[in-house]
Prior knowledge:
The two termini are 19 Å apart. Helices cover 45% and strands 0% of the residues.
Amino acid sequence: MLPKADLLKQAEHKAALTRIIDKAEQAxxxxxxxxxxxxxxxxxxxxxQVFDRLTDIHAIADGGYPQAERQRW
Length: 73
């Protein structure tokens, strides 16, 4: 699936990123959209930086209303 060890190698928020990677792998397996729990701004930023390097995943951040601080991804 995804290169989890490589993606987590320099991660600051390893626990959150591990959960996000697990969700991404679920989406790849089922071809169904999935949502993460709400992420803090630093967690979201790190996830975006990590997943921008991947071509198999398309992610959208949404907090339920414009300018929401915590968002799902």
